[in-house]
Amino acid sequence: MKDMFILAIESSCDETSCAIVKNGCEDIATVIMTQIDIHTKYGGVVPEIASREHLRCITLVIEETLKKANMKIEDMDAIAVTYGPGLIGSLLVGIEAAKTLALIYDKPLIKVNHMAGHIYANNLTKKMEYPLISLVISGGHTELIYMKDEYSFEKIGGTLDDAVGECYDKVARVIGVGYPGGPVIDKLSKEGTHEYNLPVPLNDDSYNFSFSGLKSAVINLAHNCEQRGESLNKANLARSFQDVVVETLTKKTMKALKDYNVKRLIVAGGVSANSAIRESLKELCEKNQIDFSVPDFKYCTDNASMIGAAAYFAFQHGELADENLNARPGLNLV
Ligand code: KG4
Ligand code: ZN
Q: Is position 205 within any domain?
C-alpha cells in the first residue's frame, strides 16, 4: 500500500502543535509551542490568552514543521485537526488553519477527537494490537476504555467528578509548588514518605473514579496546618497523595483487565507521564502476563504527532470533514 503522509494540527488547550506523521506510526517531524510559562503566573490556563497565543503561533508552527521534515504541503495526503474536546477559542484556531490548508491545496480533511489522539500516541511507540484496555488520564479525563478492535471505543468507567490531572494541578496550587502540578508533585513525592493518612476515593468494585474527596482532604489538611501555625511537609504530602492516586488507578485498571479478560493495557494522556503510575502498572502487568504500553514521554502531553497517528485510523473509519467543521468543546470519545 502507498505510504500516507498526514499533516496534523493540535490546538485544543495551551499547546500549539503541528506534525507530519507517516502511516499512523512514524513521526516525521513535530513542532510544539507551549504556553506553560504564560499561564503559570495565573495558576492555570486562561482561555482568552490561550486562543490569542495560538493565533500568534499557528502559522509559524506549521511552517517550521514542513521545514523540519523538508516537505511541502503538496506532499501531504491529508490534513488532520483536533475538533474537540477542548477550549472553544483554542480549538477554532487549529480548525480554521486546517480547513484553509485543505481547501487551498485540495486535500481531504480528517477530524480527530483529542482523546483518540492520546490513545493513538501509543502507536508511535509500539504497534497497537487488540483487544485492549486503555487507561486515559489527563487534565480533563480519567477513563477506562475497552477497544475490541481498531478505532472502536467503549467507555467502561470514568471519573464521577474531577479528572486526575486536574486534581494534581489543584493540589499543587494549594500547597504552593507551581503549575502544572503533575510534574512538580511527581518530582517532589520522590523526596517524601507516606506520612499523611488520606482517604482512598471510591474504594468499590466499579470501574469509576472519584477525586474530589481526595482533593478536599488535601486542601483541608493544608488549611488546618496553616491555621494552627504548623508547618506542612510538602514532600510527604505529595508522596501520600500520589500513593493514593496510584493505588486507586492500579486497582480499577487491573479489575477491568481481569473482568474483560484482556491481555493488553495501554496508558494515555498527560498524566501517563507520571513515573509512579507508569512503574506500578508496568509491574502489575509483568506479574499478570499482560502486555503493557505507554507512550514515550514526549508523546504523553499534548502534541500533534498523536493527532496524526489517530488521523490515519480515523480516515479509514470515515472521519472526514469539510469547510463546515466546527469545534466541539464537550466532544466525547463514545
Ligand atoms: O493530556 P494533557 O497534556 O492535557 C489534557 O488533555 O488535559 O494533560 C495535562 C495534565 C495536567 O493536569 C498535568 O498536571 C498532568 O497532565 N501531568 C502529570 C504529569 N505530567 C503532566 N500528572 C502527573 N504526573 C506527571 N508527571
Ligand atoms: Zn490532552
A: yes
Q: Is the CB–ligand 1 distance for residue 165 below 6 Å?
A: yes
Q: Which ligand is nearest to the CA of 188?
A: 1
Assigned domain for 224 exists: yes
68 within some domain: yes
Q: Euclidean distance between the first and final Cα of the chain, in Å?
A: 30
Task: Give residue 67's domain range.
Answer: 5-120+299-321
Contact between 21 and 327 (Cβ < 8 Å): no
Tell the residue nearest (CA) to atom 18 of ligand 1: 182
Q: Please tell me whether residues 34 and 72 are part of one structural domain.
A: yes
Q: Is the residue at 327 inside a domain?
A: no
Q: Which residues have CB atoms below 5 A from the ion given as ligand 2?
A: 138, 302
Between helix 234-259 and helix 212-228 the angle, nearest 10°, is 170
pLDDT in tens, the chain (334 residues): 899 999 999 999 999 999 999 999 999 999 999 999 999 888 889 999 999 999 999 999 999 999 999 999 999 999 999 999 999 999 999 999 999 999 999 999 999 999 999 999 999 999 999 999 999 999 999 999 999 999 999 999 999 999 999 999 999 999 999 889 999 999 999 999 999 999 988 989 999 999 999 999 999 999 999 899 988 999 999 999 999 999 999 999 999 999 999 999 999 999 999 999 999 999 999 999 999 999 999 999 999 999 999 999 999 999 999 999 999 999 999 8
Q: Is the CB of 87 under 6 A from ligand 1?
A: no
Pairing verdict, β 264-268 and 132-137: parallel
Whether residue 281 is found in the same domain as residue 147: yes
Report the domain count for the chain.
Answer: 2
Which protein residue has the closest C-alpha to ligand 1 atom 19?
182
Are residue 113 and residue 94 in the same domain, yes or no?
yes
Q: Are residues 164 and 287 in the same domain?
A: yes
3-state DSSP percent of the chain in helix, strand and coil, to 5: 45, 20, 35
b vs e for 63-73, b when ≥16 Cβ sit within 10 Å of the residue's Cβ?
Answer: ebbbeebebee
